[in-house]
Description:
This protein has helices at about 5-20, 20-25, 40-55, 60-65, 70-85. The chain is mainly alpha-helical and about 90 residues long.
Amino acid sequence: MSNYTDIKNKVLQIIEKYAFDKELVRNALDESRIIADLKINSARIVDVIMDIEDTYQIEIDDASIEKMIRVKDAVDIILGKLNTLK
């Protein structure tokens, strides 16, 4: 089972693939906002979500996507989905 730090690092790796400014992602904090601070546009968010779903074999519903504002939110949502699979 993955822990918070492992998931955060993987999420940031995924986000970095789609970032125009890789340095913003490399310096991201838990509180960094994915769209506003890391400059990931809405079209690329779809790719990020799909990669997360493929990586963790989970489905992220629309309500969860709307709550995925900060890096921490993404990690918490993934952890929650993984815990329901147990």
